[in-house]
Amino acid sequence: MMQNSIGENAGKVWRLLNENGEMTFAQIKKGLKAKNEELYLALGWLFRENAVYSCEKEDNVFYGCK
Predict the structure, then answer these.
(1) Residues ≥6 apart with Cβ < 8 Å to 10
(2) How many domains does the chain divide into?
(3) Residue 53 belongs to what domain range?
């Protein structure tokens, strides 16, 4: 059950990043109105699938689609 939820959230995160470009964790959280735990799991899923990247700019970590 939880795996389906994680996969669905990963899809939502990927679509948000694909539409908006690089975003911080806080921006993703606000855009999806999701809990921290949900986003950490979704981002982990996407990193495992090699679908997203992260980079640091001006002391902020940004995430984007590959």
Answers:
(1) 41, 42, 43, 45, 46, 49
(2) 1
(3) 2-65
